[in-house]
Amino acid sequence: MDVEEQRPFPIPNNVKRFGLKNSIQTNFGDDYVFQIIPKDDWSSMAVSLSTNAVKLYSPVMGQYYGECKGHTATINQILFSGHSNPNILSSCSSDGTIRTWDTRTFQQVSIINAGPSQEIFSFSIGGPSGNLVAAGCDSQVLLWDWRNNKQIACLEDSHVDDVTQVHFIPEERGKLISASVDGLVCIFDTTGDINDDDHLESVINVGTSIAKVGFFGESYQKLWCLTHIETLGIWDWKEGRNEVNFSDTRTLASESWNLDHVDYFVDCHYSREAEKLWLIGGTNAGTLGFFPVNYSETTTIGGAEAILEGGHTDVVRSVLPMSRVHSSGIFGWTGGEDGRLCCWLSDDDSPQKNQSWISSSLVMKPERTCKKNRHHPY
């Protein structure tokens, strides 16, 4: 049956059919996927699981490479180190540690310990010289020098509740942003001897508990903010200005398709080439939609430009859009509470036709020649 016949809801003209290439069951039982991230060269992807382990797979073939085990509590974030140390993967956990792994041997090579009573919810690597590790630990922001694992700062006066996100800002690596359950976003300068009094530059009051933030825009001056009550806000972090606040985000997204009500939001995805921001929402049954966010003149959540359906049977926790260069026709990977990793193919001749479709504006295109070096946003 054709997609159009199954969906009375109008589908954009610039769409491609695509299907589920394959589905990998990462574990047996009730274990599930937290996060999927790619290595810089896309030769592997790391997947954090509720088993307190990180598994590595090929993002093209889905081949299993091995796993990194050592955490004794929930893994809250994983991060590849980047071009300088391409084989190094780091992970932070509610066990109060940031562990570093060599993905060639799957062995732990270093550990930062925040203390037995601390939970580390987020971490980031950066700073003016690239040698700082920042972490959100309960209501504190802690900083270490990763070269010797020495703690160099404890920012404890800026937040009064769990710090859910810390990020060094792209293209301004000396600046650090933190977000918390207390509803505050703080921007710090990490040059010199870091402290709350002299290095807290500005504070944004979102007004409700913050789940996830990310940067976008030509110079990454804009900040999207997802809250724990499933609302979305857009801010200019340099000016401290709220540009739009979607307080009824789930309703707006649900009205943009004729499927089940959107129950939650997974993430936002920004294309610098297309200069577009998509909000990724899902249903409890495992269907995903990519909803364009219009935040300039008309502030709306647009009709879904991609729908991923038929791969998951439970809540989706992570979405990884594929690289332009290494995609091999693959649109991306998703992971969820059903323990599955699903690979979505964006080719018209997908081996399995299902109800999924995608706007051509979301299909990765070859890189344009740029004079300027551009980094991927968070």
UniProtKB/TrEMBL annotation:
Keywords: Repeat, WD repeat. One of its GO terms (biological process) is regulation of seed germination. The keyword Repeat applies. PROSITE patterns: WD_REPEATS_1 (PS00678), WD_REPEATS_2 (PS50082), WD_REPEATS_REGION (PS50294). WD repeats lie at residues 68-111. Signal peptide: none annotated. SMART domains: WD40. Pfam families: WD40. PANTHER family: WD REPEAT-CONTAINING PROTEIN 89. This is Putative transcription factor WD40-like family. It comes from Medicago truncatula. The gene is 11420988.
